[in-house]
């Protein structure tokens, strides 16, 4: 795969956004740490907003699916299509992350939108290139001016894979510099063929 940034893009974030717009679906392993809590999951996404999360930790076997046409999520605590099953609104506390992340706003596209909005009211610093788990990543620091924040988030640190533009690590901080959440991403598959019924409620 040809690197998006080898030519020295002046705006790596915008290059990543433009590449993302050409992607129809993706799947990746996600490890999220917030305080003393760590979640590990297989995250699958298909435009215009279908999400499936297969949990590995702490609720191994649980499956969460969001359907943008119904604007509802379903949670199978003991595995897909096993009873009991809960139908929930996406802002239900039961399925929000410790940092308040909603299932309907969990994809990479929303992250990029928030990062661009924060950058528009602040600054973007390109720190350099770093190797993370064997992947060359562009390290960006995006910070709001003054105390401008998106919710609690005043600063993002993004490590964007040079070949795909997808994040391999994301860290968010509040205005006081406290780490709110760190996300590690691996095993990315771009435009995989999901089986029939994979995102069915």
Summed up:
With 201 residues, the protein is mostly beta strands. Helices cover 11% and strands 44% of the residues. An 11-stranded antiparallel β-sheet has the order 6-5-4-3-2-1-11-10-9-8-7, covered by helices on one side.
- The number of helical runs is 2
The number of distinct β-strands equals 11
Query: Given this structure, which CATH class is correct?
Result: Mainly Beta
Query: What is the CA-CA span between the terminal residues?
Result: 35 Å
CATH architecture: Clam
Structural class: mainly beta
Radius of gyration, in Å, reads 17 Å
State the CATH superfamily name: Lipoprotein localisation LolA/LolB/LppX
Describe what you observe in this structure.
- Helix content is 11%, strand content 44%.
- The chain is mainly beta and 201 residues long.
- The chain has a single domain (12-190), classed as Clam (outer membrane lipoprotein receptor (LolB), chain A).
- It has an eleven-stranded antiparallel sheet, covered by helices on one side.
- Helix 1 runs antiparallel to helix 2.
- It starts with 11 loop residues before the first helix and ends in an 11-residue tail after the last strand.
- The model has no long low-confidence stretch (mean pLDDT 91).
